[in-house]
Amino acid sequence: MNPSQFNNLETSGELLIDFGLQPVSNRFLAPDRSSKAPNFPLKLRLSKDSGLIHLAEPFPIEEMKPQYDWLTCFEPEAHLDDMVNTMINLPGINQNSKFGAYSFKDDSTLDRLRNKGYRNTWRIDPELDLGVYDKCANVETYQFSFTMNTTNAMKKKYGMADIFIIRHVVEHSYKLLEFLDAAKNLIHENGYIVWELPDCERALEMGDWTTIWEEHVFYFTSSTFKNLLLSSGFEIVHFESVPYLLENSLVAIVKLSKQFNPISVDSNELEKEIKRAYSFVENLNHRKKIIREKLEKIKKEKGSIAMFGAGHLSIAFLSIADIADLIDYVIDDNQNKKGLLMPINDLEIVGSEVLYTKDIRFCLLSLNPQNQPKVIKNHEKFISNGGTFASIFPGGDKDLLVL
To answer: Which three-class secondary structure state does DSSP give residue 242?
Structure first.
């Protein structure tokens, strides 16, 4: 793999699929708004020498910044105790070691370290260290200011880290090589970086297009991320894919390679990644067609269709498949979202009481699969009244296409 190819995403590899214009998925609108949600071209490209899939042209940073300070994100954490135990047992690490971290996504990891007596910790301050003063800004903005210049200042302020933690950020990077170099700049020669990021392998294999999000520039698998690390001057100390229902989490602990030699991607692995990418498009197109046909039939037989969950997963599901016209209600019990409009088809977000006050007998679940059983349990009355819940995600027992 030659990582320098990702300096120009528009020309890296070949066009894999063009989704046309897609909305900024965090742009929830007030009913009396005077503007519409912005739309930008969304295309995926495939690097033929690595198998890595990425956006052809990321959306403008200033447009992706959330408009509300209550918008946030949640990353999987059930594995963090084990991850912390792995970290503190690395060679050279002791209770005097210095642990640095990238963002609020790492706070719970730092808490676990401090609870174990590892109290020499610090975390990047978006305002003071990155010059990001907008309280609504998130990692989509932070990554653009994470450079050699800003990390040089951090080194003077905090000192070199023995371990630097970056959870669920590298996939957002617009300038991948610069981001990797900036991370290297914060550890000493025997230090470690702990990377965590989504494992897209299962979604790609199943044609699940909800994995595509304008905030994620890169769509890594175990193979493509390992090859990126090795090609970028890292030695991999620990690597695993932690299983979760929605998507697994890749955890990689690396240190700087003492003798960096360019590597070539295993031809069998490369063939597998390229085949997976092509199959993703085929499965996606097939699944889109079947889902529209099934929802049209359900709407004809059962009437109104609701969708439970107003987030980027539901927006991707509706927009990429061009099926928002089949949805009558979008449900979300987040009080901040109620009454706002989705950035697609001006669908109003309403509370779950509509399951009982409106004539609804079919409801799609676009929540993280680990949260779906709770919703189903809370709304057993909807089911006893003749209602049906179905998941938008492939593979589970609630999969829309297996009901």
So the answer is: strand
